[in-house]
Amino acid sequence: MFLYMTMEGLAKRSRSDQPLDEGLLPRVGQGDRAALEALYVQTEKAVYALALSILRDPEDARDVTQEVYLKVRAAAHLYVPQGKPLAWLFTITRNLCRDLQRNQSRDGQSPEDLENDARFSYISDPTDRLVLAAALKALGDEERQVVLLHAVSGLKHREIAQDLGLPLSTVLSRYNRALKKLKRYLTEEGVRL
User: Fold this and answer.
1) Contact (Cβ atoms closer than 8 angstroms) between residue 66 and residue 74
2) pLDDT tens column, 131-164
3) Which class for 19: exposed (0-12), middle (13-18), buried (19 or more C-beta within 10 A)?
4) Do 142 and 153 touch, CB atoms closer than 8 A?
5) For an engineered disulfide with 144, which of 8, 104, 139, 175 has Cβ 3.0 to 4.6 Å away?
6) d(C-alpha 139, C-alpha 178), whole Å
7) Percent of the chain topping pLDDT 90
8) Ranges 1-10, 32-41, 92-101, 139-148: which has the least confidence
9) Helix (H, G, I), strand (E, B), or coil: what is residue 181?
10) Quick count: other Cβ atoms within 10 Å of Cβ 107?
């Protein structure tokens, strides 16, 4: 129960209930800086959460997040409105993460040890950091993605399902399975829940 309350509390603290304005992208494509800033404010936590779920390194995730908005600024004029601007941003994010992973594997770099890493930019509460570090370590890619999108960016399960192109039942089952894994992992690590 504690784990669930921690994850829900984290999601509520980071959620902006403003709907994403799809009209921002054409304005960004025309060079409107205010539109780019508004898009950034509305989507940056979700983009960061997705990058973090893939890369498992907070600094790399921040770098990719910034690069996403550079790409958006350069390619916003190509965006075709389909009612899913966040899904478009997620596609850019996934592609940049894959590029970074390929480059790192070519360079022989490995991800930093996350056990001693407390550099989560949006998380100040030590309990939340512990849970997120556990999520990065203990969960599979798909579960980690759903948990971080919900917890860090505050997206609702329905929104995650839509933006990832998954059925809502799949997102809910991944989330619930992930919470059980996290609880088991934290209990094994000696954390009292």
Assistant:
1) no
2) 667 667 788 888 888 888 887 777 889 988 888 8
3) exposed
4) no
5) 139
6) 7
7) 30
8) 1-10
9) helix
10) 8
